[in-house]
Amino acid sequence: MKKFFLKTLTLSLILLSFLGCSSNKKNNIESIPMKNKKYIVQENLKPSNLSGISDNQISDHWNLYVGYVNQVNKLNEELSELAANGQLNSLIYSDRRRQYGFEYNGMVLHEYYFGNLKNNVTKKESEEIYSAIKKNWGSFDNWAQDFINTGKTRGIGWAILYADPTTKDLINCFISEHQIGNIAGFMPILVMDVWEHAYMVDHKAGGRGDYINAFLNNVDWSVVEKRYKDLIDSKITKRF
Ligand SMILES: [Fe+2]
Question: Residue 146 belongs to what domain range?
Answer without folding.
Answer: 128-233
